[in-house]
Amino acid sequence: MELPDGVVAGTDGRPRCWWSSGLPDYEAYHDGEWGRPVTEDRRLFEKLCLEGFQSGLSWLTILRKRESFRRGFANFEPAAVAEFGDADIEHLLADAGIVRHRGKIVSTINNARRALDLIATEGSLAAYVWSFEPSAAERPSRFDRASLTAASTSPASVRMSKDLKKRGWSFVGPTTVYAFMQAMGLVNDHLEGCPCRSEALELRAELVPPVRKVQ
How far apart are the first and last CA of the chain? Predict the structure, then answer.
């Protein structure tokens, strides 16, 4: 059977979005994580940070270093990372297991502190993030390779990026935020014909997102 444009058979014969094909670690990430809705604050914070580290690099580079990042950044627990100081920064800069970029390391620590502020005012990071889930009217009418390739940002990612920056976050541009939304299931960008698209839709239908705290 001919597969839709952009859907290819992986190393195990399973149809997948083209970008994940041929590499077992990418295929596992595509099948088990990417596009599946997440409401856990720690995982949301981790992904926002790692997307910032990815800037200028491939996600595969970050994915393969993810366990080292988790060890270096206290498993991305915001309260723990918020306490990092100069000695921690120097230690991280000496860690060959991560991306040793001072600006991105300092940004992660800053963003942990901003995350705590946000949690205090909005109830949870999840409640805040899911309030930016786009409506159906803002989404493409078709999910094929052309539409996905053309979408590096979205109106929702622009709104969230602007709001985060206003709150003092860094390395959270619209492209970074859109990649975060794709990965955490706020948008479902699995292609039509990829089995994970329907799986993610079912998970979203079952999910009751946390309610953002009313000010």
Answer: 54
Angle of helix 102-122 relative to helix 86-93, nearest 10 degrees, comes to: 130
Residue with tokens 């502020």: 117
* C-alpha span between 178 and 183 (Å, rounded): 9
Beta carbons of 109 and 84 less than 8 angstroms apart:
yes
- Is the pTM for the entire model greater than 0.90? yes
- By three-state DSSP, how is residue 88 classified? helix
Distance CA 162, CA 140 (A): 22
**Residues carrying an active site annotation:** 29, 51, 59
Q: How far apart are CA 138 and CA 143, in angstroms?
A: 13
Query: What 3-state class would DSSP assign to 75?
Result: helix
Predicted confidence (pLDDT) per residue in 144-202, tens digit: 898 888 889 999 999 999 999 999 999 999 999 999 999 999 999 999 999 999 999 99
Count CB atoms within 10 A of the CB of residue 158.
16
pLDDT tens profile 6-30: 999 888 889 999 999 888 999 999 9
Rounded Cα distance between 173 and 30, Å, is 23
